[in-house]
Write a structure and sequence with these properties.
Length: about 270
């Protein structure tokens, strides 16, 4: 998880957002459940290509995590994991597959550790949970637009992916006092919560899809995840940064489809 991971404004995409109880989420398609967890600056549009491709044969669900609404005392990885547990319980989902990017991957790992019986498989891409390269949990130059632009571009292999709209959105978020405090709090929580000693307890199949040129959670992070997770496979995407599902959607979707076909289709349609 990085405080400068990819963010695209939700209004650039059209989603049917459902509101039930305290939850907001997207739910499209029918079939085995594929639940997607965004990162710290994540938005629904981060998953647009996955949603479009996989809602044809899966029930794709994207809950909006309340990153800026949680009490500060609950603004941590464990608090988000508990929120996801409440959402899954409320929706009565079972036999689901989790896919998490960056902070979303970290939240998914914590959820799986506590509720492994409900999850068929796990996919991580650019996940936090071990270590990362970031700004150290602060914004020393948050009012410097060019600095924010440079740090946003750092997320990608191709800096041109960081459009002006994206940079403007990140700049606005980090300069909001309410959001800034919660971002720093969440970032520090993720850094403190190193899961190296716990990963051996995750026995379900795990697919690691990583950008070979990820500078935030570099390739050695993926390799360490692979060595610590007992039932994992690792795939790198060349010329790709921290958000493969956005920067290299075709390659990402092909790898995801291969894994899902092996793990989910046999389990649900045999």
């Amino acid at each position: 998880m990085s405080i400068f991971e990819n963010y695209l404004a939700e209004e650039t995409m059209e989603f049917h957002i459902k509101n039930e109880d305290k939850f907001q989420y997207v739910e499209e398609g029918e079939g085995p459940i594929l639940l997607l967890l965004h990162g710290l600056f994540g938005a629904l549009s981060n998953w647009s290509n996955v949603l479009e491709n996989f809602s044809k044969k899966y029930k794709v669900v994207i809950p909006l995590m309340p990153l800026y609404q949680m009490p500060l005392s609950e603004t941590n990885v464990a608090g988000l994991s508990e929120f996801i547990h409440e959402f899954i319980t409320y929706k009565q989902y079972s036999n689901l597959t989790l896919l998490g990017n960056s902070l979303g991957g970290h939240v998914a790992l914590v959820y799986v550790l506590n509720h492994q019986e409900t999850v068929n498989a796990l996919i991580l891409t650019g996940s936090s949970g071990l270590y990362e390269n970031s700004m150290g949990g602060s914004y020393p130059k948050r009012q410097d637009y060019n600095y924010i632009k440079t740090r946003t571009e750092y997320t990608f292999y191709d800096p041109a992916t960081a459009t002006k709209e994206l940079v403007d959105e990140v700049y606005g978020i980090v300069n909001s006092r309410n959001k800034g405090i919660r971002i720093i709090t969440m970032a520090k929580s993720a850094i403190r919560y190193n899961m190296a000693k716990e990963l051996k307890n995750i026995q379900i199949p795990v697919c690691l899809i990583w950008g070979k040129d990820d500078k935030i959670t570099p390739s050695e992070v993926a390799e360490e995840f692979h060595s610590l997770l007992p039932n994992s496979e690792l795939h790198f995407i060349e010329k790709c940064g921290h958000a493969p599902m956005m920067e290299r959607p075709e390659e990402f979707n092909a790898l995801l489809n291969n894994f899902l076909t092996k793990q989910i289709i046999p389990a649900n349609f045999q």
